[in-house]
Hints:
The protein is of the alpha/beta class. It has a single domain (9-259), classed as TIM Barrel, CATH 3.20.20. It has twelve helices and eight strands. The protein has helices spanning 9-20, 37-40, 45-57, 68-72, 75-88, 105-118, 132-140, 160-172, 192-198, 216-222, 238-241, 249-259, and strands spanning 24-28, 63-66, 96-101, 123-126, 144-150, 180-184, 204-206, 232-236. It is globular.
Amino acid sequence: MTKIASKSFWHKYQERWQQTGSVLCVGLDPEFSKLPDCVKKAENPIWEFNKAIIDSTAEFACAFKPNLAFYLADGLRGLEALYRTVETIPEEIPVILDCKVGDIGSTMSAYVSAFFNSMQIDAITLNPLMGTDVVKPVLDNGGFAFALCLTSNPSAADFLKQSLAPQIADWILQFPTENLGAVIGATQSSELKTMRSLLPGRIFLIPGIGAQGGDLEAVLRDATDSAEQPNILVNSSRGIIFASNGTDFATAAAREAKLIGNYK
């Protein structure tokens, strides 16, 4: 059964925040080698793992973010797991596919069709370096994307942190707020205030909390748009889903998920 999105990502995010007070995005990055032994022998291990994680953390989540690479790594079985994962996530919780695509118009249109129409994803991440061609198919489809702006990895200093982040922020501003946000890494704590001042009203997807060592307190203080409308999604992947590699992995994930975010 295909899940049909009834509302845009922008509206689903705002409604979810109002309902829960949570800014947590649970990253579903099921690296096969790290899966608990208790699911590895299942017919579809990634699917069994994700279902348990979703069931245990949904009440604490403002969004879920599967990372495409970990599903492709398991071949056809992994793609089946991804489709089933998206179908299982409750309709009221928005889903972001972390795919970081960015290509010429025709190729990007194919990505958009696959992700938004076939897979029924609510939002994607994209690489904006090829310019407007990358985002136009998303806009034409009425979708939402997070453009890589200042990422959490150390080598972001090679290009993004040196000079490109402010240029990308300025580029983002030409597109509707309801269709384009920004990826801003939690590990870039000294830049959070600056990036928020450059992009008021935009939703920030903020990876880097947990295993990468980002400062949650700094993110909540410096990246939040306002108390009434925070416009942030604080992503944690490994720190939640691999909190335990035993039979209690889902319970441990729920415990960690409850600790992250800003709850009313």
